[in-house]
Design goal:
Blueprint (H helix, E strand, L loop, with lengths): L1 E8 L3 H12 L2 E2 L4 E3 L4 E7 L5 E7 L7 H5 L3 E8 L3 H10 L3 E9 L5 E7 L5 E5 L14
Parallel strand pairs: 1-5, 6-9
Antiparallel strand pairs: 1-6, 2-4, 3-4, 4-5, 7-8, 8-9
């Protein structure tokens, strides 16, 4: 497994994009996507020789991240790219991670499955087994 991106919750997607482009020199690399299952908007940003950043903003009042966003947001998760999603979920669970969102279609990943787990150290992680990001050419190599 390798880190694919870091997920950052922002109260407003457009303002988050402005901050990340102005403060840190990142560029928008995908179209904004509405994830209807998680009730969030996401967009991917990148910068040469740096990790990809996924900004996440609540799409509805009952979004699971709404309260976090209202408090200003911040680091939400690390996303790991792996070869076999189900296999890696089982390995992480055997090592003490707790499955918090079972595999479901990730709309920002062209409906490839995603899953979320909480590690014993309270790190929220997302697992994916694709480099596809909606509206963006994937990075090369795993």
């Amino acid at each position: 497994m390798i880190i694919d991106h870091i997920g950052i919750v922002v109260p407003d997607l457009e303002e988050g994009i402005r901050q990340w482009t102005n403060l840190f020199g990142y560029a928008v690399k995908s179209e904004p996507v509405m994830n209807s299952i998680q009730k969030v908007y996401v967009v991917f940003l990148s910068k040469s020789d740096s990790l990809t950043v996924k900004l996440i903003a609540p799409a509805t009042e009952d979004s699971a991240i709404k309260n976090f966003a209202v408090r200003g947001g911040g680091l939400h998760h690390l996303c790991f790219l792996c070869d076999e999603l189900e296999t890696n979920i089982q390995i992480l669970r055997q090592k003490g991670a707790r499955l918090i969102t079972p595999p479901q279609p990730g709309e920002a990943f062209n409906s490839h499955p995603i899953a979320f787990l909480l590690t014993p150290g309270n790190l929220n992680i997302e697992l994916i087994d694709t480099q596809e990001k909606k509206g963006w050419t994937p990075k090369t190599g795993i």
